[in-house]
Amino acid sequence: MSIYTEDVQSEVHGRIGFITLNRPKALNALSLAMVRELMDLLLRWQKDENIVAVAIRGSNKDGAFGAFCAGGDIRFLHAAGMAGNPELEDFFTEEYALNHLIHHFGKPYIAFMDGIVMGGGMGISQGGTMRIVTERTKMAMPETAIGLFPDVGGGYFLSRCPGHVGEYLALTGQMIGAADAIAYKLADGYLPSSEQAAVWDGLVTGSFANAKAVEDFIASKLIATPARQAAADAEIDQYFSKGDVPSIIHALEAAGSDFAKATAETLRKRSPLMLYVVLEQIRRARQQTLADDLRMERDMVRHCFYLRADRKSETLEGIRALAVDKDHTPRWSPAQIEEVDLGEVAQMFASPWPAHAHPLAHLKG
């Protein structure tokens, strides 16, 4: 069964590899050991001609399903960042390589995105060929709330959402459900949560000659997506198409709608510096390959933890306020969007490595 950790459970039935994330007390947040085991499994199954597909799910305290993955283990990231632990660097390098592998896996990769799917959970599902959501799906890239940016390929997959939804989701960290996830091209199909076990068991007990047979089986089980609530897509495009962060926020604050007011209030709580960085990230990534985006994000995350000139890490401060001290009053530097230094924003995109020595130099496409 497991190679490195009990937090990842794996087995093969017939011609399908099955993975269950089994760290329910942490909402299946990814540790370095979990990333390494997932990478090892997927590399072996990618090369194994007897394996035609992979299915992945998360468990909750009551059993299978209910929570997919809440992201990376931010408590570990905070402790490692404060201590200068080199495993912090390993975590991001190996996690991003795992994200790339999933996008380029070459076989059906079926992600049962039930419950919480955030941050790193998006990283291990967005590259899948069949991303299944349920009425319990709570999807988000909420990194700006902790002074980070939507990594794990977030620049790539958010920038490919319709219109300027990518900017909206990246800057606000707004949580969405199944219908919006499908409309925004972040999921492929809908399944009631009560039917997941039967579909999973059907994959376990079924006989599948090839990858297409697996895909056809899953497709036959999906049902129509529930109707969306009144969507704010037009307002999203109106505001988040603007050229810079002050223009977006000032336009929202000048508008009268409930959406505009709530969105402006949310953005004012985020790290001003990281709002600028994230807007630039999404717009750069729209023209990049996944590999180039992941290399850019690897550069950015090094700056977030280590390379700021005044040594004040927005990310360490954001995690402290949210998850360590839990005072929910991060002391952002600078405190206001009007005070952000554009030179510092630009520096966040300067690679610390020459191209040949980049830790993700080997990624293609």
UniProtKB/TrEMBL annotation:
Pfam families: ECH_2. Transmembrane segments: none annotated. Residues 16-349 form the Enoyl-CoA hydratase/isomerase domain. The keyword Hydrolase applies. The keyword Hydrolase applies. Keywords: Hydrolase. This is Enoyl-CoA hydratase/carnithine racemase. It comes from Comamonas odontotermitis.
